[in-house]
């Protein structure tokens, strides 16, 4: 019976991670809250890395055609210098530029950030700040498309992604909000945000491989981890599809309402 309860808890964590990773409400913050409510304590980064890997796979499946087009176009531009492939090359370049701030901050300070800020209070404040930002950009409709971006745009969105290393600050929220704020169209903002997610997640997986290899709970939690992984994979896929529809309709204000309510409730009751 205890084993079944444990499996159900990890199933729930997988649902939380999968449902909140694509949308602007902070998956890391919600996992902290969920683990507290369930009485689970994760030592090390292995669980976070596994669930992030599942989310990454789901998002790569959804954007597979865009990824192939960008990589292929960038490669062709480098080989042929044909102008028709330059937009793909520049978009890839901006993804690299936008990845640098978060990569540097994560490499130098990620453990320290999580040690200082991984509290319910911090998550609550982060959700409230995310809600305010979402409310401020709710009516913005940019004009910049894929070929209109600049180094400045990439750096600003990259800095926002670095700030989102603080639990409670949504990564997708910070990058989508900043992308819209610098004038990107909804579709471009969504695409750029999740293209940025791919390299930073791959980097986290590579750097955290030793945590998984050295996890003393690997054998004991193999099945719960697998349940959480598979659940995260499936739920992320459908959550991402749903969020893409929300972005197309420009209804981000509803996420601001959620962040306000959740942030206040967490502050009061947890």
TrEMBL record:
Protein name (Swiss-Prot/TrEMBL): Undecaprenyl-diphosphatase
Keyword Cell wall biogenesis/degradation in annotation: yes
Broadest EC class assigned to this enzyme: hydrolase
Membrane topology term: Multi-pass membrane protein
Superkingdom of the source species: Bacteria
Annotated localization: Cell membrane
Keyword Membrane on entry: yes
Note: Bacitracin is thought to be involved in the inhibition of peptidoglycan synthesis by sequestering undecaprenyl diphosphate, thereby reducing the pool of lipid carrier available.
InterPro entries hit by this protein: UppP
